[in-house]
Design a protein that fits this description.
The protein is an alpha/beta fold. The chain has 21 helices and 12 strands. The protein has a 5-stranded parallel beta sheet with strand order 2-1-3-6-7, with helices on both faces. A 5-stranded mixed beta sheet has the order 9-10-8-11-12. 56% of the residues lie in helices and 12% in strands. This is Helix-turn-helix domain-containing protein. Keywords: DNA-binding, Phosphoprotein, Transcription, Transcription regulation. InterPro entries: CheY-like_superfamily, Homeodomain-like_sf, HTH_AraC, HTH_AraC-typ_CS, Sig_transdc_resp-reg_receiver, Tscrpt_reg_AraC-type_HTH.
């Protein structure tokens, strides 16, 4: 028989309980359960075993006899509904005793079926049961979506009056005794288990999902927060998923700041590939000091004499230190750019550097960054430490010593008493770049150090390294590093 159930609709779980084996066997064959979207997941002859099963397993529909020797029907259905309040109940009895019927109906039994069971009556009852489940879930889903919309509005809107209205609707009260915190749970699997858990807690005032992650508004004491973390579903808890606990906030304005802080931390967790663990976030003014971004000169001293294996180990250590220091992904990218600037001195084509800058800026996580830099380091290692002729060595020294002047190939050739065309060709053949490209690269390397370690105005820095036109410097710097001088300075000083 072809199933009429949508492929996207989940199968509803059914448990049959009857002390008579033949009744259970007959029920399983009486209707086409699968075509109704139903799956019989368990059958029990002993109601005590059925209670034990319900303690650890959820079902949608319980069909049970009301007259079993191991436990009276009224007691069984009462205990079963106490364990699974949302479960639908259909009671069966061969007796017309009103007490038994009434006991089932008091537990919101959908219907009372008399033995022997009529197929048409069972089908009608099952259709009615499924309709009730769908209607209840639709109401729950609509209510949940409404709350999610309210939470999203509260955290993202700039309308103070609307935010105040949402706070009242969610029952949020800012104060010292029961602080409000934002909690992030990254990609919980399965998410429905977390949803069920959150809906049962009065301390959870609302939640919504951003992509795969849950943003939760929690209001309660420190003890209640500990309980929330400890009693989360095991497969979703902090041992299995990253749990991010935001700093407490006492005002609406602070709540929005905490939300931005939480989003940044979520992005950082994904970038550094954190698999699991609890992270309690401190207020911004209590955050620990961040790592100091090493300068071009520092990195050059660190890696210039490393072989490829030592470089890979050094790089892994650097990123591990960043992860422990809770730096931002922006800091990690900026560090990678400094490493690239050092490695690029060994490359013979400008395209290698340009392509790598693009790869660094679009890296999804730290593994991507490490792979990109390792590839360039391997390429640089293959090129080896270049050996330059006397003329080219002199040209490089002039560029490094007098980069702040208005140098040109013609000026350098005149000082060396050589033909400019010949000298330019020789330089490009040995270095892989024209003299002007090499000079620009070196000036940007100096600018990187100055931006990181001085408070001088960007326009002053441009002049100091030989550019009278600040706009040209801005454009050149962005081409070389993938960001403007201002963006580079901000990323290096914020650390997060």
């Amino acid at each position: 028989m072809c199933s009429l159930i949508s492929k996207n609709k989940p199968m509803r779980k059914v448990m049959l309980v009857d002390d008579e084996y033949m009744i259970l066997r007959g029920l399983k064959r009486l209707v086409d359960w699968e075509s109704l979207g139903l799956e019989i997941v368990n059958t029990e002859q002993n109601p005590r075993l059925a209670i034990k099963y319900l303690q650890t397993n959820s079902i949608d529909i319980l069909i049970s006899d009301m007259n079993m020797p191991e436990m009276a029907g009224p007691e069984f259905v009462t205990r079963a509904k106490a364990l699974r309040p949302e479960m639908e109940l259909i009671v069966i009895s061969g007796y017309s005793d009103f007490d038994y019927v009434h006991a089932g109906l008091k537990q919101n039994a959908v219907n009372y079926l008399r033995k022997p069971i009529d197929t048409d009556e069972l089908l009608e009852t099952l259709h009615g049961t499924l309709a009730r489940i769908d209607a209840r879930q639709q109401v729950t889903q609509n209510a949940s979506l409404a709350v999610q919309t309210q939470v999203r509005t509260l955290l993202t809107s700039d309308d103070a009056a609307l935010q105040q209205q949402v706070c009242q609707s969610l029952g949020l009260q800012f104060g010292e005794t029961q602080p409000i915190r934002l909690i992030g749970v990254l990609n919980p699997l399965p998410p429905k288990d977390l949803v069920t858990y959150l809906r049962a807690l009065t301390t959870v005032k609302g939640f919504y999902t951003e992509a795969k992650d849950f943003i939760i508004i929690f209001q309660g004491t420190a003890a209640e927060l500990d309980v929330f973390i400890a009693e989360a579903p095991h497969q979703i808890g902090a041992e299995r998923r990253p749990f991010l606990i935001g700093a407490p906030c006492q005002t609406m304005a602070l709540l929005k700041q905490r939300y931005q802080q939480l989003r940044q931390e979520i992005a950082r967790q994904y970038f550094f590939e954190t698999a699991a663990g609890l992270r309690v976030m401190l207020p911004e003014n209590q955050e620990q000091a961040t790592l100091v971004l090493p300068s071009y000169s520092d990195v050059k001293d660190m890696i210039d004499n490393l072989d490829f294996a030592d470089f890979s180990a050094w790089l892994t250590t650097q990123f591990d230190d960043m992860k422990q220091a809770n730096v931002s992904d922006g800091y990690a990218r900026q560090f990678a750019l400094v490493v690239l600037l050092v490695l690029s001195d060994h490359l013979t084509t400008v395209n290698d550097k340009s392509a790598t800058i693009a790869a660094i800026n679009r890296a999804r996580d730290v593994s991507d960054l490490k792979a990109t830099l390792s590839q360039i380091a391997k390429l640089a290692k293959q090129h080896g430490r270049p050996k330059f002729s006397r003329n080219v060595t002199a040209m490089r020294q002039l560029a490094q010593q007098r980069f702040s002047e208005q140098l040109s190939l013609a000026m350098v050739a005149a000082e060396l008493h050589l033909n400019a065309v010949y000298l330019g060709q020789q330089f490009k053949q040995e270095v892989g770049r024209s003299f002007s490209q090499y000079l620009n690269d070196y000036r940007v390397n100096v600018a990187v150090d100055l931006l990181r370690h001085s408070d001088q105005d960007i326009g002053q820095i441009a002049t100091m390294i030989g550019y009278q036109n600040s706009s040209y410097f801005f454009k050149l710097f962005k081409n070389q590093t993938g960001m403007s001088p201002g963006e580079y300075r901000k990323a290096g000083t914020s650390g997060r």
